[in-house]
């Protein structure tokens, strides 16, 4: 996903939350209960007197409200359009957009204050199209460095690659590793936003060229990509 698209999602998500109907007179527990009644997980946040809420339900073929869905751990979660006040999640709102809906709720979940905050998987991967896009670049940077990895970005903070020490991995199966400044690192596609070295449709020539484009301006040597 390119820089403009990421900014576009962020702007639309913000508009979607600020345009949510004011529900300050209704206790948030009311929305939480409606969600739990359908075996869902509530996501509720209130800022400046405006409450935004949604309900995450596990995907099922029998569920009619499962168009805005994404992968999370070993399951697929969907946003029930009947238990949300976020316009982008409601098909009759005139601005329905499943991707912006998912983006909005995914971000809302991590800082929810009217329900328990939920740490959902990153990067966000939609179901069933498996579209992958970045949510929080700086968080990816931090997570990479906490694992003793290095982050190399290119032109903007939204174009970056994370490399973890090869010695820190339990297995290098289906992982592509490279020598950077004489040390062996492996590319972590879940904490990266380049796309050119991901395991799906991997092309060594393209990957190596991309790494060098990112690394050369920082005087980082690149060798032995596998």
Could you give the topology of this structure?
Blueprint: H1 3-18, H2 28-36, E1 41-47, E2 50-58, E3 69-72, E4 75-79, H3 98-110, E5 124-127, E6 132-133, H4 137-146, E7 150-154, E8 156-165, E9 177-180, E10 183-187, H5 204-215, E11 222-223
Antiparallel strand pairs: 1-2, 2-4, 3-4, 3-5, 5-6, 7-8, 8-10, 9-10, 9-11
Helix pairs in contact: 1-3
* Overall pLDDT score: 83
Strand tally: 11
- Content-based structural category: alpha+beta
Give the DSSP E fraction (strand runs of 2 or more residues). Answer: 25-35%
Globally, the shape reads elongated
Task: Give the strand line-up of the largest sheet.
Answer: 1-2-4-3-5-6
Count of discrete structural domains? 2
Return residue spans where pLDDT drops below 50 for at least 5 consecutive residues: 1-19
| Cα Rg | 20 Å
Keywords: Signal
Signal peptide: 1-20
